[in-house]
């Protein structure tokens, strides 16, 4: 029995967050999250069948990073720092 338990493995699904959950846990508005997504500052990980964006847990770290950078940088500068070309509109 113990050997059987060692051989079995399972994968815990990653928690996915909708925009409403992100705004509940951060100081950002729905529009800001939407704008950051459109600008490429954050990225959705999946979409629901109904077309809603879903974000993984890494979005919180990225939003914290953006928040800190906004103290001294513009959004265009932040996008460049985070690896998105300035002329990339999507």
Q: Topology of this structure?
A:
Blueprint: H1 2-7, H2 19-25, H3 30-39, E1 46-47, E2 53-54, H4 58-69, H5 75-81
Antiparallel strand pairs: 1-2
Strand content: under 5%
Main sheet properties:
2 strands, antiparallel
User: What value does the average pLDDT take?
Assistant: 86
Report the count of strand segments.
Answer: 2
Radius of gyration, Cα only, in angstroms?
A: 17 Å
**Helical percent range?**
40-55%
Choose one word for the global shape.
Answer: globular
The strands making up the biggest β-sheet line up spatially as 1-2
| CATH fold name | Multidrug-efflux Transporter Regulator, Chain: A, Domain 2
H/E order of the elements? HHHEEHH
| Oligomerization | single chain
User: Uncertain runs with pLDDT below 50, 5 residues or more?
Assistant: 86-90
| Domain module tally | 1
Level-2 CATH architecture: Orthogonal Bundle
Q: Helix- and strand-based class?
A: mainly alpha
CATH first level: Mainly Alpha
Provide a count of the helices: 5
> Terminal Cα separation, in Å?
53 Å
Which features does this protein show?
5 helices; 4% strand; 47% helix; mainly alpha; Multidrug-efflux Transporter Regulator, Chain: A, Domain 2; single chain; 90 residues; two-stranded antiparallel sheet; 2 strands
Would you give an account of this structure?
With 90 residues, this protein is mainly α. It has one domain (14-81): Multidrug-efflux Transporter Regulator, Chain: A, Domain 2, CATH 1.10.1660. The chain is 47% helix and 4% strand. The protein has 5 helices and 2 strands. It has helices at residues 2-7, 19-25, 30-39, 58-69, 75-81, and strands at 46-47, 53-54. It has a two-stranded antiparallel ribbon. Strand 1 (46-47) and strand 2 form a beta hairpin. The termini are far apart.
